[in-house]
Design a protein that fits this description.
The protein is an all-beta fold. It has one domain (2-107): Immunoglobulin-like (Sandwich). It has strands spanning 2-6, 9-10, 13-14, 20-21, 27-36, 41-49, 60-66, 69-79, 86-93, 99-107. The strands form three sheets. Strands 4-10-9-6-7 form a five-stranded mixed β-sheet, with no helix packed on it. Strands 1-5-8 form a three-stranded antiparallel β-sheet, with no helix packed on it. Strand 2 and strand 3 form a beta hairpin.
Length: 109
């Protein structure tokens, strides 16, 4: 499995990785490449402002279906705007909520 934060996804691959981005209105992607040998699964990608409480209005989550594949690729994105200013924890979770992968991102550095 691979989990990366990037400014661009091209040909279903992340182009470079980032840990911080400016407030320029451009997209920042959370990209995951997964191995799934079994039936279709549902994962959740969560964008959470660091320090915000559970269920905070700054929690953003996306349900992602993952089919059977040796290399399933999926992603979510946010635009780096003033709303996103701050430090974020971006995580990929299974249906039970267990964290499979996690990265930190600073927006409006």
């Amino acid at each position: 499995m691979r989990f990366a934060l990037t400014r661009k996804v091209q040909d279903r691959q992340p182009v470079g990785e980032v840990a911080s981005v400016p407030c320029d209105g451009e997209r920042v992607y959370a990209f995951a490449e997964l191995l799934n040998k079994g039936p279709r699964q549902e994962l959740v990608m969560v964008w959470k402002r660091d320090g915000a409480g559970k269920g905070s209005t700054t929690d953003l989550s996306y349900r992602l279906g993952v089919g059977r594949s040796p290399s399933w690729k999926t992603w979510s994105y946010q635009c780096a705007t003033g709303f996103m200013k701050g430090r974020w924890i971006v995580s990929l979770r299974d249906a039970a909520g267990a964290v499979l992968a996690q990265q930190q991102l600073t927006v409006c550095r």
